[in-house]
Design brief:
- This protein is mainly alpha-helical.
- It has two domains: 96 residues, no CATH class; 43 residues, no CATH class.
- It is built from seven helices and four strands.
- The strands form two sheets. A two-stranded antiparallel sheet has the order 1-2.
């Protein structure tokens, strides 16, 4: 019997971005879909990027973990999954063990079923801002009418290119006369 009093759970499909997790002795598959993402945001009362940040800094609640797990399981076709049952399974397993799978699932949910990967260098150079001659941000149009911008905060594009994230500081030296700012990890920021 499966975790939800029915047949065994769905098999994972890596091409769809499915995430496998073992909770309370049951093998579960979480499937990122637009419907699951909308369900999570509605039930949690906040956006997916905010939940990713909460998972990253370990402030995500037991209930939010259960909401994510339930929506992911339901997206595989397991309609008997309930938030309360998922919450019990997460609690039995331990919140810390569930966070990694939930974090991976949420990232895939906002990235079309894929893990985050930086764009190829040439695409990043086209879309990443660069500093204008006077050091201020500027915008321009390309021949096809798309917009580009410039005004790279010191080291942002090189950090993103080299690490795929904003969690490591740039290797560029600070600007002359710039204040000494302590290094810290950057979090994803949900647009308002």
């Amino acid at each position: 019997m499966g975790a939800f009093d029915g047949p065994e759970e769905a098999a994972a499909n890596p091409a769809r971005g499915d995430v496998e997790v073992e909770l309370a002795g049951h093998h579960l598959v979480l499937r990122p879909t637009p419907g699951a993402t909308a369900e999570i945001e509605h039930q949690a009362g906040r956006g997916t990027l905010a939940l990713i940040n909460a998972a990253l800094d370990r402030t995500i609640t037991l209930r939010e973990l259960a909401i994510v797990v339930c929506a992911g399981v339901r997206a595989t076709g397991e309609k008997r999954a309930t938030i309360d049952k998922c919450q019990e399974m997460v609690w039995q397993t331990g919140v810390v063990r569930a966070v990694e799978a939930v974090q991976t699932f949420l990232i895939r949910s906002v990235n079309g079923g894929r893990d985050f990967r930086p764009l190829p260098d040439e695409a990043v150079e086209e879309w990443m801002p660069s500093r204008s001659g006077n050091g201020s941000a500027s915008r321009s149009s390309t021949s096809d009418g798309s917009r580009t911008s410039s005004g790279d905060p010191a080291g942002l594009s090189s950090t993103l290119l080299s690490t795929g994230s904003l969690s490591e500081p740039s290797s560029k030296p600070p600007l002359p006369g710039a204040p000494d700012i302590p290094e810290r990890a950057h979090k994803l920021v949900e647009p308002r």
